[in-house]
Structures are given as C-alpha cells and as structure tokens.
Amino acid sequence: MQANLYADFQRTLDNCSSEPIHRPLATQGHGQILVFGPKRPRFLYAMNEHFPEWLGKPEASLWQQPVEAWMPESLQHSLRNMQLSDANQTWDPIPFCHDDQSFDVMPHVYAGMTFMEIERSKDQPAAFSVIQRILNRLRSCRSLSELFETTSEQVRKILGYDRVMIYEFDRDFHGKVIGESKEPHLEPFLGLHYPATDIPAMSRELLLKNRSRSIPDIQLPNERLSFNPDLGTAIPYLDLTMCQLRATSPVHIEYLEHMGVRATLTLAIVQEGKLWGLFACHHDSPRTPEFEERKIGEAIADLFSVRLFELQRDERRNRVASAQESEQKFLEQIRVGDHYKLELNQDGKYLEGICIADGAVAVSMDGVLCSIGTVPVNEDIMALRNWLIQCKDGELFVTDDLRKMVPIAAGFSTRIGGMLAARVSEVSQSYLLWFRVPHSQVIDWAGDPSKTLESARFDDSEQVRLSPRNSFAKWQEAVEDRSLPWEADEIATVSRIRKTILKLEFQRTAANVMRSRQEFMQLIYAASHDLQEPLRTQLNYLDLLSEEMHTAKHDEWLHFVGRASHAVNRMQTLIADLLDYASLGMQTKREPIDLQSLLAEIQEDLSQAVDKKHAVIRVGKLPWFKGNRSELKQLFQNLLTNAIKYVSIDTIPNIEISVKREGRFVVFSIVDNGIGIAEEHFQKIFLMFQRLHRREQYDGTGIGLALCKKIVENYDGQIGLCSTVGKGSSFWMKFHETSILGDFE
Fold first, then answer.
1. Higher-confidence residue: 12 or 425?
2. Which end of the chain is more exposed for a tag (fewer CB within 10 A), N or C?
3. Structural domain for 648, as ranges
4. Residues with Cβ within 8 Å of residue 351, at least 6 apart in sequence
5. CATH at residue 708
6. CA distances from 36 to 48, 252, 339, 546 (A)
C-alpha cells in the first residue's frame, strides 16, 4: 500500500513533514470502516476492501442496496441519528455481534461525513475503579519527578504495554523522555531527546483533535478503501482525522521497526488547549487496545495533565513568593538620586534572587553600580549597555541565546547563555541585567537528529527508497550557547520592578518641579518686595517734590514729575499683576462659591468705574461653582473691567452676563458693546504683555486676559471670544458640569 497510500503526494527528502497522514486511501487491517456521505445518506460512500467478505455479502450489492437491506436495525437507528447532526461529533460505541463474536461500532461525524468503525471488543475492568485508583496515586505525588515515575508505572500496569514513556515537547517541539516504565530487558530511553521531525506538525495537530492513536500491529497489511462506483472515476478526498483505523505512514512504520516495536498506543497530554506532550506506549508483540482501554488511557492523560498543572502551579507559587521577597528587599535598597542617578544603600544582594539567574548587574549612568554572581567583566557590561541603548528594543530585552542576538557577546571572556535586561530610566542610561550561563553542555539524542530520513536504492534498480534513521543509539550533541528560557512570571516581575523605579523617577521629577516652582515663587516674592520698597521711596520723594514745585509754580517740572509718578504707579501695578499670575494654582482648596453673590461684590468694587461711565450691567441667574473664591473673583472682575474700559468715547457700556448648558458642559458669557477685536487677534490677546492699543488710549499691563486664561485652564476649562470691530465682544468660558453646583435654569 505504500505506493498507493496517497493519490496526490509522493515523499521526497524535503517534503516528509508535509505528508497528508490524515487522508490516506487505506485503513489498518484490524477492523472495518463504513463511510456515508450527505448526498445519499442511505447508501455507502466508501468501505474497506475486505468488508464485503467479512459481512458475507457481494460487494456490488452493498453499493447498490440501501442500508435497510443489509445493516442490523440497531445500527440503522444510530446511523439515522448521526446523520441528523450537522457538526463534528462522536458517539458512544454500539455493541454488535457477528459470527458469535463481540464487536464495538464506534460512530462519529466529521467534515460532513458519517463514519462507523468496527473493532473486536472484550470484557474490561470497570472504568470507574481504574480511574479512581489512578486518581488516588496521582494525588499522592508531591513532586514532578514523582509524578512522572508514578504515572508511567500506572499506565503500563493498567494498559499492559512493555514500555510506557512520558514525552515532553519543548518550545521548538523537540521531545524529551521525562518518565519511563519498562520491562527489565529493554534499553532505557529516559532522558533521551528526539527531534521535532520524529513527530511532525501534522501528527501533533491530529493528536490534538483525536487524543489517542493506536497501531495494533505494524506487520498487519493495510486495507485499501473502496469507493462507491457511482462517485465516478476521480479518487475522492476523504478526511480520516477522527478514525482510529486510519492507515499509518510507511515512514512511521519503518521508524517503529528500527526501534524494535511491534505495536503502539499514543495518548495526548494537553494543557490550555496546546499539546504539552504525550504518553508513548510500546509493545514488542501485537497488541490491540479496545475502545474502553483507549478511553481509560485518554482519561489518565487528562488526570495527569490536571495534576501536572497543580504541581507546576505550586512550584511557580514558591518561586514567585521567593522572587517577591527579593523584589521587595531590593526595592527598599534602591533610590533615584540627583541627576537621576540610580543608587543603592547596600550591595544589592537581593537583585540576583528576583529571577533564577547565575548573575545580575545594576548599571547606573556612571557605570556598574553592583554585580553579583557570574556576569561579564565591567568593560563587557558597559558594551552591552551601550548596545541596548542603540538598539532601542523597548522596555525589556529577553533572550536565551545572547551570542546569536547580540553580536558583540561572541567576544566576551565570560560564557553567557541568556540575558534579561530592563531599562529603568527615561532620563539616564540605567539598566538592570540578569544573566544565565548555557544550561547544558551535552544533549543525549536518540540517534543523530540531523538524520531524520535516509535514502537508499532498491537492489540494482533506479528507484529511490526513503526511510527513517535506523539507529537509536545515544548520540550526543554539544550545546554551546543557549540558556534555559526565561519564565513568564520572571519577565512580569522584572517589568513590575521597572515600573516601580520609573515611578520613583517620576516622583523625583515632580519633586524637582515643585522645588523649582517654590524657588521661582520665592524669587518673585523677594523681587517684588525689593522692588516695591524703592518704588515707594521714589513716590514719596516725587510727592514732596511735586508739593515744592506747586509752591514755586514750575509747570513744566510738574508735568515731568507727574509722568514719573505715573510710571512708578504703573510699575507697582505690573509687579502686583505678576505676583497674582505666578501665585495662581497655589491655592488648591476649593469650596462652593455663590457666583450670584460674588458678581454683586465685584460690581460694588467697580462702582466708581461704573458710575463714571454710567455703565449698565445685567446679570442672569448664576449657579454655585466649586472653586477658589479669590481666583474666581479675579476672573470675573478682569473681564468686567475690560468690558467697562474698552468702549468708544461717549458710548455707555452695556454688559450682560449669562450662563447656559451645552451637553455635559456649562458656558458663561460676558457680552459687551465695546470697540470689538479683529479676528486675527483672538489668540494674541490671551498672551502675556500683549496689547492692541497704545497706553495713552487705554491703560493696563497686558496681563489681565492671560491671567483669566490660566484661571480657566486650572479648572480644565476653555476660554474664547466672538467679536466684531465696532460692535462689541462676547467672551465665553466653558466648564465641565462637575464644577457646577445647584440649579440655574
């Protein structure tokens, strides 16, 4: 059957991993298979070639007659129920007697086709008692090594195979035998590694879907699949993924021959939906596991997976608890000093315990801060740090093959396998580095892993024959560079430490900003105090001089003295405004403010200016506002003062203050009939010391609207205006409704 196993695939040295083992045109010879299609559900679609002989019916009659003519009623009933299913599904076996022998019919639906597999059955021990016994034994295991030893022994005792191996995949799907129970005369395979090509991707995928795979006898010939002639001459595609009777690849058969194995049972070990490993059961003579045995094996594999997860979780918890203790003690030692320099108040001895590492290093901006265990020399550490800075590989850099990932590491005097690096500063060039040496100098392979397939010629012919390697003697490979991989919880711990140190750096930045602000305020207050005193002295002397000049009637001098006095007064006002601007935001206490009352108070304070210009101010219903009273008074007073001030000659100021809702925001408006502002100046007027008019026309310091903008933005608000030159302006302020208290509508 080797030549005809696939109609559209020919094995070569390069494509063996692509062999479509899920759809051979043959079955194993220890059972029967019937296939029904969706278009003619009462007629056979396919069967194995010896089924007519086994049933005692002519082949032509089985193709031509519906199932009612030759199938027992009990099986017909099951077939009808299965064909009503439109999804992949497996049913319990159906007992079936033929020629005074007991059989099990295993039905399932897959890829739209209905399958019935028929195998011999025999009495089995009660599954419950078997499962209960194995469960008790697994629960008693307190370590992974004990679990592997106990489970392999129990599986061999229950299923009766000569050898049972527990086989674990690594991240590249190379396998290692981590548990084994065997007959005394057999060579041990425990500890041997197998290349990923021994169990290729297609085989692993099939094991995830169909958790057990039995080959009862590798010497038993395959049986050709026969297809209903009504299908035509084209050989159809038939997916046998879920069929136990699916024929086995000739390459795998030969592989088992080279191992001296006659029968196998493979059971998938699945964790979190992924193939973690498998139980490989080998026997030196034919052995047919019945349906119940296979299901017991699958149940044991599931129980093993659960206990494996529990023990791995416990080990991980212990490891994480130890790492967290080291993390906490290390963080107690570390600080961010002046100029963002990383500092340790001890020798950093807890740094290494954060990960399972052979050495660790803290590198500050000035060089190596501390080093523990096996690490590169300081010169190489600094070269690594510089490489990390240049490669800009993000927050963390993780590798278990440093020489491959970092070219400069090839020249290091210290052999390093893996590195976990964390950049712990956004400002300086500080890093924390953990190192691992190569984890193993030698790997024991079951045969040369590079020789997964060999080619040879048949006698004197030109035909090339492909076969698997025929030697499984221990073959040793030196591993020079790679370390054990870094665990996810170790990477998470380092990431958490990084964030904590960055938080310290941020706090340092905030403290520096606050200190600079305080120093700036002290400078402003000191400057204002020192400036105010000579200004007051100048004003006093100018007043005295003015009185003397009035007596002497020096009119021109009086004019000069008046101008000087005006300049000094303006300078005092400017200093006071600067102080107000600088101190904004210093008062963090906010409380409910009655804006209606506040506006009345402001109008009282501006009564002299209001009376002078006969201004009319109308204030609508205003809400309470959660804020600082002095800031809000400054805000509204500056806007009202401008509305009164900036009007044409002989124009009576007409001002209206109102408030309205806009969605989840509240908008205050101050509308006037003043001189207006050109649109190109809308942004300019909110900048410091920006004036649109000469001082002779309108006095002021040019700070008022900048101060208003800063106050509004301190409340996460917005300020703007609409204006037409010669007709007036409408200043608006928008605040989120959370700042507003009480009703105003």
1. 425
2. C
3. 588-741
4. 326, 330, 360, 361, 362, 370, 372, 432
5. 3.30.565.10
6. 13, 29, 78, 120
Displacement of CA 242 from its chain's centroid (Å): 34
Task: Please count the structural domains in the chain.
Answer: 1
Which of 293-302, 434-443, 538-547 is predicted with the least confidence, judged by mean pLDDT?
Answer: 538-547
Contact (Cβ atoms closer than 8 angstroms) between residue 48 and residue 24: no
473 Rama sector, left if φ>0, alpha if ψ -120 to 50, beta otherwise: beta
Q: Which long-range contacts (CB under 8 A, 24 or more apart) does 233-240 make?
A: 235/7, 235/25, 236/46, 237/23, 238/23, 238/25, 238/35, 238/46, 238/113, 239/22, 239/23, 239/110, 239/111, 239/113, 240/22, 240/23, 240/24, 240/27, 240/115
Report the phi/psi class of residue 486: left, alpha or beta, with left for phi > 0 and alpha for psi in -120 to 50: beta
Number of other CB atoms surrounding residue 331 within 10 Å: 16
Cβ atoms of residues 300 and 159 within 8 Å: no
Q: Say if 702 falls within a structural domain.
A: yes
Q: How far apart are CA 284 and CA 287, in angstroms?
A: 9
CB 70 within 8 A of CB 55: yes
In a domain, 677, yes or no: yes
Identify the pLDDT of residue 2: 45
Entry pTM? 0.61
Asked if residues 141 and 311 have their Cβ atoms less than 8 Å apart, the reply is yes
**Under a CB-based contact definition with an 8 Å cutoff, are residues 585 and 625 in contact?**
no
**Residue type for position 467:** S
pLDDT in tens, 431-461: 999 999 987 544 454 545 455 545 444 444 4
Q: Does residue 712 fall inside a structural domain?
A: yes
For 412, the enclosing helix (H) or strand (E) is none
Whether the Cβ atoms of residue 704 and residue 577 lie closer than 8 Å to each other: yes
Does some domain include residue 719? yes
> What confidence tier does 466 reach under pLDDT thresholds 50, 70, 90?
very low
Distances (CA, A) of 460 to 12, 350, 464: 20, 70, 11
% of the chain beyond a pLDDT of 70: 79
Bridge-partner residues for 368, per DSSP? 363
